[in-house]
Design the sequence.
């Protein structure tokens, strides 16, 4: 891995993102719109404010991972199918330079996404957490990073943008079912509880649930944040090892 080519790859991807306004809107605005829609789903129901607050805080972990997974997998696949990657392989660019450049560029846009999402939740929709909102921003960013890394892995196995989208039911929806949002994990069958406990979305949900109810985060919260970071880094390394050098 070369620092110069890594920085060049990051700058190139950021430039492409800045020129793609639709993708920027998808990343930075759509999660907040979905959260607002969820607010209006609950607003007139009995006890809806309490239920919305719980679900909204969970969405701070779910939406960044889901959105960044989808956007990153399609963006990376488009580079491959358009021939951009094959041209890059003729230059002194290593796989790690490109993949870490992608992760850095998309993580930078994820910062904007998380800040907008938390601002809309806290100031626009009166979402309440006991801990500082900075912790929520941090877990949202780590979840987005995991989504980016998973999206890069998926892009290595998909042959079209449609196939990349088809990975959503495989990678994201099972985590959504088992993370504890719909049913507490300790109420699931034992096998599903064990599986849910090792999924990254579950770690994010555990963190934001604690932030919602406890002012002083515990050691379990720090451990789950470390798990998210390590999972994202391992997934990113795997992506660097699996991205093909030739278009299929």
Sequence:
């Amino acid at each position: 891995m070369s620092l110069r080519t890594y920085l060049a790859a990051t700058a190139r991807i950021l430039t492409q993102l800045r020129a793609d306004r639709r993708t920027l809107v998808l990343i930075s605005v759509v999660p907040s719109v979905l959260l607002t829609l969820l607010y209006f789903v609950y607003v007139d129901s009995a006890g809806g404010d309490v239920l919305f607050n719980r679900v909204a805080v969970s969405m701070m972990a779910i939406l960044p991972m889901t959105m960044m997974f989808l956007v990153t997998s399609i963006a990376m696949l488009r580079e491959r199918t358009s021939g951009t990657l094959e041209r890059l392989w003729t230059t002194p660019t290593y796989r790690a330079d490109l993949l870490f450049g992608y992760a850095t560029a998309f993580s930078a846009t994820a910062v904007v996404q998380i800040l907008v999402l938390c601002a809309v939740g806290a100031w626009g929709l009166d979402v309440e957490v006991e801990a500082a909102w900075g912790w929520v921003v941090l877990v949202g960013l780590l979840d987005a990073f995991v989504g980016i890394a998973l999206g890069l892995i998926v892009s290595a196995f998909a042959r079209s943008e449609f196939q990349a989208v088809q990975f959503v039911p495989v990678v994201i929806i099972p985590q959504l079912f088992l993370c504890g949002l719909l049913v507490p994990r300790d109420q699931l069958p034992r096998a599903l509880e064990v599986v849910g406990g090792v999924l990254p979305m579950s770690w994010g949900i555990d963190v934001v649930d604690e932030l919602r109810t406890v002012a002083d985060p515990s050691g379990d919260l720090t451990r789950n944040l470390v798990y998210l970071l390590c999972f994202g880094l391992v997934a990113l390394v795997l992506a660097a090892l699996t991205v093909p050098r030739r278009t299929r």
Observations:
- The chain has 13 helices and no strands.
- The radius of gyration is 18 Å.
